[in-house]
Amino acid sequence: MLLKRKLIILGYGAAGFAAVIRANELGIKPTLVGEGEIGGTCVNVGCVPSKRLLRLGEIYSYKGKLPENYRTLFDDKDKLVSALRAEKYEKVLGAYDVELIKGKARFTSPTSIKVNGDVMEGEKFVIATGSSPAIPDIPGLREVGYWTNVEALSPDKDIDSLIIIGGRAVALEFAQMYRRLGKDVAVIQRSPTLIPDWEPEISIAAREMLESEGIFVVTNAKVKEVNKGKKVVTDRGEIEGDEILIATGRRPNVDLALEQANIELNERGGIKVDDELRTTNPNVYAAGDVIGGNMLEALAGKEGVVAVDNAISNAHRRIDLLSVPRAIFTQPNLASVGLREAEVRNGESRTVFMRDVAKANILGDTKGLIKMVAEKGSRRILGVHMMGENAAEVINEAALAIHFKMKVDDVVDTVHVFPTMAESIKLAASAFFRDVTRMSCCVD
Ligand SMILES: Cc1cc2nc3c(=O)[nH]c(=O)nc-3n(C[C@H](O)[C@H](O)[C@H](O)COP(=O)(O)OP(=O)(O)OC[C@H]3O[C@@H](n4cnc5c(N)ncnc54)[C@H](O)[C@@H]3O)c2cc1C
Asked: Concatenated DSSP letters for 318-335?
């Protein structure tokens, strides 16, 4: 008879690791199955390397010139990736009681998977297999060749120009990264605006910011084909570059023979789950990018924990998705949490420009704005959207305010450190009561 494992976790990225740790906290030794580099997307080919390269670009833009050999920047990034992978994943795994199996998993029944030819039975499962770049069906693209985030983070050749197809987080970050490495960069976006699911004022400001650095941006452009010489033909003209980066989104990794386990997909092509992260198979849960929702590292980690709590302890935990913040790590950062003004039926908003925030002036970068959206009457904060220096840090305060259902008045009533970028949140709240362009510093 086959040994029935208590909990099998598929995928060892953020969601899978969080699930392992929670399982141990609940007294369970899980089986962790994964393929590829341990740690998954974020540490190897996502957040960590991209943020390091952006930071290096920032440092060298202050210095005014790049190092002689700009490839040393990639070596620096590689060192950090190896160090963090060892510290945050390999060593962490050693600290927990877990059975690690390397290999690709596929379901063989509602209660079993096959890995490396071995079938294993499980009582409960958490699917955390992440996502991969979605490659659009553009005539000629496959023949001509292209980069995804993986190749762009570890290029095997020197280029002078890069054409980026896409206009969301990854596209914006790589556009600035490569521009600051001294390359000509063009961004081609199909929608009428960049980052179309963000507050329109932020989309406009983001475009201006990229253009101010010499990045060529074209929106409302449909790519018709790609020809030799890396020529991208759109309905708005042609553009030629040394390489093409595809940044048109990510698709969930669902090549798992899910039909064998009665697990259905949702309309986004991800695994269908209910509010408690349970799939259409009651013994199987899913967490992270594989669901096809907001693809964020911290959300994946949270979902890994919640999935295990619900699978093992029937805890009925749900995640407050309204207060999940997101950021794009250009300089200045873009960040947002909660609802956009257009999504609130009975709402009102106030906007403060960074030129009216003392710290932005002190830092010498007054690009951007902060917009706070609140419910009319109660003034409960429902959304905060911003572009400004360190906005990715500042937005955490707004996330807390939304999670704890705070009102604009609560923020105004809280003394903030002067001068900080976080003070911009207080100024946006104060703008509901007075004209902040006519305020002296720190008036309550
Ligand atoms: C360029 C880039 C930059 C990013 N920057 C940020 C950022 O700054 N902040 C942020 O919050 N998010 C960022 N993200 C998103 C973030 O990386 C993901 O949301 C996060 O890594 C998802 O974690 P996960 O555990 O769901 O999946 P992953 O980390 O992708 O892990 C999935 C794991 O499952 C394994 N796997 C897949 N199929 C199988 C199978 N059949 N059997 C066994 N194992 C399998 C994979 O090999 C992998 O190890 C970025 C993403 C990219 C691409």
From this structure: ---GGG--EEE-SSSEEE
128 CB less than 6 Å from ligand 1?
yes
Expressed in angstroms and rounded, the spacing between residue 315 Cα and the centre of ligand 1 is 26
Pairing relationship of beta strands 118-127 and 4-10 according to DSSP bridges:
parallel
**What token pair was written down for 120?**
């294993």
CATH topology of domain 141-248: FAD/NAD(P)-binding domain (3.50.50)
In angstroms, rounded to a whole number, what is the distance separating the alpha carbons of residues 194 and 173? 12
The CATH superfamily of 323-434 is FAD/NAD-linked reductase, C-terminal dimerisation domain (3.30.390.30)
Task: Using CB atoms within 10 Å of the CB of residue 238, give its burial: 0 to 12 exposed, 13 to 18 middle, 19+ buried.
Answer: exposed
Q: What angle, 0 to 180 degrees and rounded to 10, lies between the N-to-C axes of helices 391-403 and 423-430?
A: 50
Express each pLDDT in 99-140 by its tens digit.
Answer: 999 999 999 999 999 999 999 999 999 999 999 999 999 999
Pocket test for ligand 1, best of 108, 148, 297 (most atoms within 8 A of CB): 297
Q: Is the pTM of this model over 0.90?
A: yes
